[in-house]
Structure formats: structure tokens, C-alpha cells
Amino acid sequence: MVHSSALPPDAVATAGETLLEFPDNFLLIDLCGEYDRNLTDLEARLGLQIVRRGNQLVLLGEDAPRAAAAEILQSLYARLEVGRGVQAADIDREVRMGSSEKETGTQAGDQMELLTGDRVEIKTRKKLVEPRTDAQKAYVKGLFKNELAFGIGPAGTGKTYLAVAVGVNMFIGGHVDKIILSRPAVEAGEKLGYLPGDMKDKVDPYMQPLYDALNDFLPSKQVAKLIEEKKIEIAPLAFMRGRTLARAFVVLDEAQNATSMQMKMFLTRLGEGSRMVVTGDRTQIDLPRGVQSGLKDAERLLHAIPKISFNYFTSKDVVRHPLVAAIIEAYDKDDPAKG
């Protein structure tokens, strides 16, 4: 057998076959997944066969799929070596985007994000959050670097999730005193006044994705306590009027549904020691016909201002179910404006 220069280190190839050897059998078990489902997933997606023999994996098939599978398996194994898990989303990311991470054994600091080479990690109370794509990594770096950042792209690309994670990180690190999460309460089919309950009951359904993200990063009892103490606020965009937000991490989600006047009102709330993040999807504007999206105006007016970052996502950055990426691509192809 001869080493192939097209293959990663520790990969040995003959005609139609590549042999990978992994020194830690326990990590190999995690790499293969329960009932070898990770291997089965790679086989189906790359069109090859993977046979497990002790602490070795044998890849059988055409040269290109074998080379791709070898690189992916080596990259995923490197994740396990530094104590990071392998999930279906990691496999999906590797298959769709290729392996570009350079793993190291460096561990995250107590609270701030880890920026080592291509790695970016955000520590929260409940989990270590890892941006999975290059666009997501650039976005997170922009959130820490700039006082105002925009994340623009389709659903499922982690725009809001990562912004809330950074907000929690900066809050528990003492860099801000409060977290404020907001959305435009755009009525879709039902008038708010007709819905049952008080104002909180009426608007909470619009805010639920923000509650969900918070509960991923902080214990639920702590979230409830911080909300009661007003250290975390979740409110409709209209509630921001007249306020100056100092030492706060502020996220405006679904910003495509803010009007130009609302967007200006929101952006001018920025106070001393605060950070603002604006996220939105230009393809999902629910404003009445003829009403200009404040997100589009902000892009046009603010793109040249220093210390304001604009980060854009595509279907390749979707980290939900792989079908979501395929659905977004199908709609993009059918959009005359993008033709």
C-alpha cells in the first residue's frame, strides 16, 4: 500500500480503498455514532462504503468520495480529541462546506469567546456554542469587535441564536449590565387587540424564539429571576421608544419587519457601553405593501460607517435540518429578483 498525497495524514490508499487508523477506540466509537449511524449518513451522502475493522475504517469506492470522506472523518475525530462532540449538524456542515477548521487543544477561557486560528467558541452557563460556518465565525467576531452589527440572511443560519449567545457571554462576564431582546410585533392575520389576555400575553407568542434561545444558554430559573429583576428584557420594538440603553446588549430580531422610522428610533437608543445587533431576512418582509423595510434602509445608509459590521448568510450557512437549506435554495432559484 502507498500513501496518497491527496489524502489526509494517517490515511493509506490502494486502488478503490482507503484505510484510516484511529489510536483511541473510545473516540472511534463516538465518531461512528450509535449503531454506526454517522458512518451510514456519510455512506449515503457521499456514495461509498465504510467498513469498520477494530480501530480502523476502510473506505471503499471512487477516488473523490473516498478522499472527501477521509478528510471529513479525520476532522471529526480531531473534534473529539479536544473534547468536542460530533452531531448530525457537524457532519452536514463538513459534507456541504468541506473541512476548513484547524483544531487545537486550547480550551476556552472562563467567559469570553475563544479565537484560536479558525476556531471561535462562546461560553455560556449551559453550553459552549460553536459557530459552524465561516460566515458564522466572521459574524461572531464582528459581534465582539463592533458596537453595532447586522446579521442578514435566511432562516436557520444562526443569526439570532449566536447574537443571544454572545449577549449572555458578555453579561455573565460583566461587560454589560443587562440583555434586551426585541422584535417588531407585526400582526399576521390576527389583531393584537382581539387576542386574549393582557399585553404580555398578547406579545409573548412573537417573542417565543427569543425565550427559546435564552433557555438554551442559561438555567430556566436564572432566566426567570433575571427577567423579574429587569436584567433581561424581552419586549416589542415599540417599547424601545424614548429610552437610552446604557451598558446593555441589545438584539433586534426580525428587523426586516421594522419600518424605516422604527429602525432609526431603535438605532438611536444606543448608549454608553452598549452593543447592538440587528438581524433579519430580506426575503420575509411582512410589512404592508408600499411600506419600506427599515432593514433595507439601514443597509443603504450605514454600510460605509466605520465600526458597524454587516455580515451576510446564505443557504450554505443553514444549521437546521438539511432540508431547510434545500428549500431555501429552491425558493431562491424561483425568485425573479435573483434570476
Word description of this protein:
- This protein has 339 residues and is α/β, with parallel strands linked by helices.
- It has helices spanning 25-32, 37-46, 63-81, 88-97, 134-145, 159-172, 199-217, 220-228, 260-267, 294-302, 322-334, and strands at 2-3, 11-14, 17-21, 49-53, 56-60, 114-116, 119-123, 128-129, 148-152, 178-183, 232-236, 248-252, 275-280, 308-312.
- The strands form three sheets. It has a six-stranded parallel sheet with strand order 11-10-12-13-9-14, with helices on both faces.
- Strand 4 and strand 5 form a beta hairpin.
- Helix 5 runs parallel beside helix 6.
- The N and C termini lie far apart (49 Å).
- Residues 1-9, 99-117 and 187-192 have low confidence and may be disordered.
Briefly, what is this?
By secondary structure, the chain is an alpha/beta fold.
The total beta strand count reads 14
Q: Which structural class do you get from the secondary structure elements?
A: alpha/beta
Q: How far apart are the first and last residues' alpha carbons, in Å?
A: 49 Å
Q: If strands are numbered along the chain, what order do they take across the biggest sheet?
A: 11-10-12-13-9-14
Q: What is the beta-strand fraction?
A: 15-25%
Q: List low-confidence stretches.
A: 1-9, 99-117, 187-192
Mean pLDDT: 80
Structural Rg: 23 Å
Order of helices and strands: EEEHHEEHHEEEHEHEHHEEHEHEH
How large is the count of helical segments?
11
User: Biggest sheet: strands, sense, closure?
Assistant: 6 strands, parallel
- Which shape, going by the Cα principal axes? elongated
Helical residues, percent: 25-40%
